[in-house]
Amino acid sequence: MRELPIKKRLVFQLGGYDPKPPEAVYSRFVREMRRFETTWKVTARAAEAEVTPDAAHWTVVASGPNWRTETAYRAVRWDDVINDSARRSDWCRVPAGLLAFADFFVSGAFWGYLRANWRYAGFFLYPYVLLSALGALALIGGAAIARFAGSALVGMVVAAALSIALLQWPARRLFI
Fold first, then answer.
1. What's the pTM?
2. Which residues contact 63 (CB under 8 A, 6 or more apart)?
3. What residue spans define the domains of the chain?
């Protein structure tokens, strides 16, 4: 029996943990839709986005030689949650993030990610691997200074200062 093409869809998007205004989400969607059209030799048109406090939504019509699909697209806005979290200090966010990371492993969620899609698991690990690398860099710098100065206390102070400095500039630029 031949499968019928999908005529209507409803898509909900929960964006990543980076505050993007709805206009930016829509603009990226339209840009990538153009790529979709050229890659698959189809036609796709998106209506203008309607923005509300909780969502941005638009419809998309895509068609090919023997099919047509209409999609109602809903981008769920949670900017308030993300912005509220971003206002907290690193002294709160880093320990909370590490605790959440430990829970993710202990609960088995990470292994589910790994089974489902190893690339996404790598994407999830990125900030933690980078944070570990920056921490190791701070420890190596502190140990080198401790050896040079002949004082463990000086080395610990330098390691702490390096940790703070690395969290301020490289960590922010690398999206940790």
1. 0.61
2. 42, 43, 44, 69
3. 8-80, 88-173
